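Budget justification, computational time. The allocation requested in the original proposal was used primarily to generate structure tokens for proteins on the priority list. As evidence of use, we reproduce two of the resulting records. The first is shown immediately below.
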Amino acid sequence: MRRAAIERLLPAAYQRAAGPGSVLGALLDVMEALHAPDEAVLADVDALFAPYRTPDGFVAYLTRWVAMDHVVVAPRADAPLPLPLGRLRDLVAHGALLARWRGTPYGMRTALELATGVTGFVLEEPADRPFHVVVRVPPAAADRLTLVTRIVEAEKPAAVTVEVTTDPAAAPAPDPTTDAPEPPAAGDPEPPGTGDPEPSDAGADGPEGAATGVASVRAVGRAHVPSPASPDQPSEEPS
């Protein structure tokens, strides 16, 4: 609050005594200086609660507001976060969406993809084991099994048991020094399949221009998430 505003709140006799160089005038100047830091915070207080504007040290606190604090659980208060701040901000920004779809395959996949930055999580319910879900983790996220398991345990329905497994890594690329075919001799016909490929109508993102990766629909915030089932399709119920 400015000095002039504080002075207007005083009785008339005090206002007359708060002239320049007076003791009361000096006290009002001190009050204005004391209020300045708090007023600067209040003037931009909405930034504290905006996922992409809040200070780095406040992001983990905001996860409690959207029931995603299980992601940052650590044995020590000074332990580093288990995922980059950018992904943590994405989780906070999509907290309402994740809460709406919690307990469904879509909600679990979305939470896993936002937290790890990796797509390709597969959820299966074996026919011989009802109320049991197998979560297959893609190789790119195999080094984050602790984080994945914590998210799966929090996002699954309470009556469902889960099993987290990793998909086998892709086969290693052939060694060009040992597996490369010998060049054809001069005059030999060119073997089939070695010429220039025919042009394809498919786009760079896949057949019929379908985009790959995390998704097609922008929700709240900056990260993209997969779109849920369309309205004419039955929604995913908890297993």
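The second record produced under the same allocation is shown here.
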Amino acid sequence: MIADLSKLPVLKTPEGLEVRRVNSIERLHDFAFVVSSVFDPPDPVVRLFYENVSSVVLTEHCPMRLFVAYFDEKPVSTSALFMDVEMAGIYSVATLQTFRRRGFGTSVTLSALQAARHEGLEFAALQASEDGKHIYEILGFENCCDFYVYQ
């Protein structure tokens, strides 16, 4: 799916939700916790991966920016932004099961898209699951091709 970042919608952040950029090891642990929790069982390698890349990810000018949405100070949703010269990529959009369908994933993804636009990028791309497709359409993404995953 592709989105024109000049056409991002203005959406109200759900009450009690605060989206923060990951800029500390504690927030990085929160990010890894949420991402690993979407797997059944939770994937312990996710936290190890982010600990191993922390010295790069936590630098101010890293082209990968991570975001965590907190609801009542608890990490509940994530998104990751990867930037190159021409395009933003959105990855790791995850929301804890008990916090889904409240607009949290939409808010944290919109924050990543706004950061990409602020950096001067014009377009963003992502691969959407059927469950997440509606979230991305709200944010202005349009389908440009289909992927088929063998399971």
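A brief technical remark on that second record: Helices lie at 25-37, 44-52, 54-57, 104-118, 133-138.
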